[in-house]
Amino acid sequence: MNTLIIKKFQLGLAAMFAALLMFTSCSQQPKTGDNEEAKSEKPKAAPEGVTLTQSQLDAVGIRLGSIEQKNLKSVVKASGQLEVPPQNKAEVTLLMGGVVNQVFVLEGQHVSKGQKLATIENNQLIQLQQDYMAALSSLSYAAKEYERQRELNEANAGTGKIYQQSQTALQNEQAKVSALSRQLRQVGVSPESAAHGRFITQIPVYAPISGTIGKIVIQTGSYAEPARPLMNIIDNSKVHCDLVVYEKDLFKVKAGQQVSFILTNQNNREITGKIYGVNQSFENESKAIIAHAVIEQAAKNNLIQGMYVSALIDVGKQEATAVPTEAVIKTGGKEYIYYLVRVAERSGAKEKSETDEEDTSGKSYVFEKAEVVTGVSDLGYTEIRLVKALPKDIKIVTKGAFYILSSENATGDEEE
């Protein structure tokens, strides 16, 4: 009896354990709806490149070619600003101060060298002219005394000491007259006029160079102090350019090289010039030197000191990896070229990795773009550097690349 009860109990436990396993297995299986939803959420593979038919290539004139090695003009990019040599700019100052009596020029006016700019009233000028007249009288007396003592000395009627004293006095008076004459000329007074008693009280101020009047800091009735600028004059016809050249390009830049300037503040107007000198010391701690370039026909270009420019210095020719300029397209702030990935049968049953020349209308062409960094442009070609390497014999789009870019953008809009 007990044995029968025990067997029934064991059978009951086995049944319960089997039911528990079945429930656990069912709970772990995903629902059919979940599987379908998960499958539908898998990302779609992005389309590879841009596919065009032979008729499309013919219609827009797309041409294929190769990346070439070209002997292109090599340039060094530099920037700087226009400067005027020190001999072509001047500050007008006085050796003797005074009250401004009259100003004859305006700011921005062109003046010639020696033109009268202003007059300064100074009473000390009268004293200087009086001293000059007195010195002339003393010189005349000293000259006569010297002649008298010379004649006596030659006749052995005088003493050698007095003769030497008269000679020294004459030399002193000559030096004094010469010094006062120079002082008068420095302040713009004619010594000849002062010698005849025609005294003036106004100091004339003359232009030291030809050029354009800059800032005028005086006015009628103001006091002009000695050695302080009254106005400045600048001759922009001799303007040149100081270009900043960095250490990596230092040994490429030499005197005599041609330069093309771009005036950034004048609608990118281009002018030309030539390097005439290169400094041999670095500017402060910048590890850069200054290259000086003369500008051709600077007077006719209306150039002003301080204008900023960008420049390309022609340093010769060098062999470079290049493609036709039309092959490079810009998008998204980067530059690209398109290359041919493969030629495929339009039916899709057969694909080729070679770029056969004997294309038929039954083929389609798959293109992808490669990012490049461009350099100089010359003779219709542009220097490039591939960001990622491509096979040497790869075919690139040399004409019509912009159409492929438009097709790619249109395809992207449709997918969105």
UniProtKB/TrEMBL annotation:
Gene3D superfamilies noted in UniProt: 2.40.30.170, 2.40.420.20, 2.40.50.100
UniProt domain Multidrug resistance protein MdtA-like barrel-sandwich hybrid: residue ranges: 88-234
Keyword Transport: yes
Basic and acidic residues: compositionally biased ranges: 33-45
Family matches, as InterPro entries: MdtA-like_BSH, MFP_Cation_Efflux, RND_pump_MFP
Residue numbers spanned by region Disordered: 29-49
Signal sequence, renumbered to the chain: 1-28
Organism: Mucilaginibacter defluvii
Keyword tRNA processing: no
Family affiliation: Belongs to the membrane fusion protein (MFP) (TC 8.A.1) family.
Highest taxon above the source species: Bacteria
Protein name: Efflux RND transporter periplasmic adaptor subunit
Alphabetical keyword list: Signal, Transport
